Amino acid sequence: MADTPTTAAAAPRARGARLPSSPWLVLVIVCFAQFMVVLDATIVNVALPSIQKDLNLSAQNLQWIVNAYTLVFGGFLLLGGRAADLLGRRRLFAIGLAIFSAASLVNALAQSGEMLIIARGFQGLGGALVSPAALSIITTTFDEGPDRTKALSVWGGIAAGGAAFGLLLGGILTQTLSWQWNFIVNVPVGIAVLAATMRFVPESRQEGAVRHFDVAGAVTVTGGLMVLVYAIVKAQQWGWGSTTTLAWAAVAIALLVAFVAIEQRSRSPLVRLSFFRMRWISTANATMFVVAGGMFGMFYFASLYVQEILGYGPLKAGAAFLPVSAGIMVGAGLSQQLIGRVGVKPVVMAGMTLAAGGLATLAATTQLDGTYLALLAGLLPMAVGMGLTFVPLTLIGTAGVAPTDAGLASGTFNTSQQVGGALGLAVLATLASNKTANVLGGLGHAPSVVNQHQALVDGFQVAFIAAAILMAAGLAMVTVVLRRRDVENVHVGDAVAVAA
Question: Is CATH 3.40.50.80 correct for 21-204+270-499?
Fold first, then answer.
């Protein structure tokens, strides 16, 4: 396959697709659903202390409320994208909304940590059907060029801003009502979006393709990733070099190797490995993988810091992240203007540089006697940087893709985000816990409350430093690997969009 992108606008629209009478209404509907899906990855963060207390969860098991959702979400995104292309994008979008809404209701009724974690997994499955179908609906509704660029810019802002707004909404619902309302709210919203979908969103699918679904591939990749995260989380308890840790890691590697073997032999693979020969596609996905780890870590540890160290209640903690939501939106808006002037590569490089600096600042300003204003000095550049990063990365990750591969492109890109976020959070949480345990173990006496808080802060600082390193790694990949000719067609489309 050639190293330069081919323009999707030159390819025929997928058979069965038709331009809706109001494409921007379609955009509103699918972005509303995507906002709900992305929001649910972080909405529980502010509620975690309340959930932990009510359901008697250990600190280690607490992160599984986040990771059960993101891992199943990420693991089945590829299957969701493939199924959307073959069975119909609107159909899978609607099925995903139904599963997501039903699982949300079960979450609200959960009486144990195990029940909540399992239901969060099913919620992630619903999201895995909604998200790639939504993005492929956009790419088949809007031809590549000015309108698609504008639509994807809105999509990028939604994807980045939903995570930040989830913290605010989670705080409001947890303090004014209860943590269960973080899930109850999805039910009426999901029903409303489902009704609008059936009325206004047109159906489209890839006609003439073999309707074979690579379930074995989806199961092996999801199982391998979940086992890997489990091994990372338990490594602190078992020891990194223990037989148990190494055995679980070996199982994870075996499942992931099996996934690659299945993809090579499948007549209709979950993801064609040749798809990643397009350098801009593989670079965008690899970059999003590491960037998401840093972003998920920031939200997780910053929300714990403001509650456990600064003493904020859920509502105040959620409100503390309002500037983060605003910063991401500002960054996303700026990126659309800058892309047409300087190109996608300089914009994404600037965004990740700013985000890495913000994370490094968080490591320095997260102190036992710290203040919110000091914390904001790191949160704001991180937020603006993420807004600047998400839009160009989304454009790169979906550029030059024919309508028949719209689900594959969106599925792989969203998978990189969710799986990278889950694995990154597992690694950062383990590093933070190890640091906290080492500090407490080195005291030589029973820790006081102050000692415990200082040990937590030391762990948070390690996590933020590691997150900054992940962001810097993504910056290095874009700088070194991505070439100008890889993104020339993105430049052209965005330049027209800005001129319009």
Answer: no
Tell me the CA distances in angstroms from 438 to 212, 242, 471, one per residue in order. 51, 18, 26
Cβ partners under 8 Å of residue 371, min gap 6: 310
For the chain, domain boundaries: 21-204+270-499, 215-269
Q: What is the DSSP string of 107-130?
A: HHT--SHHHHHHHHHHHHHHHHHH
Q: What pLDDT shows up at residue 84?
A: 75
Would the pTM count as exceeding 0.85?
no
Residue 224 has a pLDDT of: 84
Q: Is 393 helix (H, G, I), strand (E, B) or coil?
A: helix
Nearest to 464 by CA among 386, 389, 379, 348: 379
DSSP per position, 187-247? HHHHHHHHHHHHHHPPP---TTS-----HHHHHHHHHHHHHHHHHHHHHHHH-TTSHHHHH
Taking the C-alpha atoms of residue 229 and residue 223, their distance in angstroms, rounded to an integer, is 10
Angle between helices 64-87 and 406-441 (to 10 degrees): 170
Rounded Cα gap, residues 270 and 376, in angstroms? 42
Total residue count of the chain as it appears in this document: 500
Q: At what angle do helices 23-39 and 89-108 cross, to 10 degrees?
A: 30
Residue where the block lists tokens 């959070």: 425
Residue of higher predicted confidence among 408 and 324: 324
What is the C-alpha separation between 13 and 259, in angstroms, rounded?
Answer: 31
- Shortest CA distance to 40 belongs to which of 221, 198, 177, 187? 187
Sign of CA dihedral 270, 276, 278, 283: positive
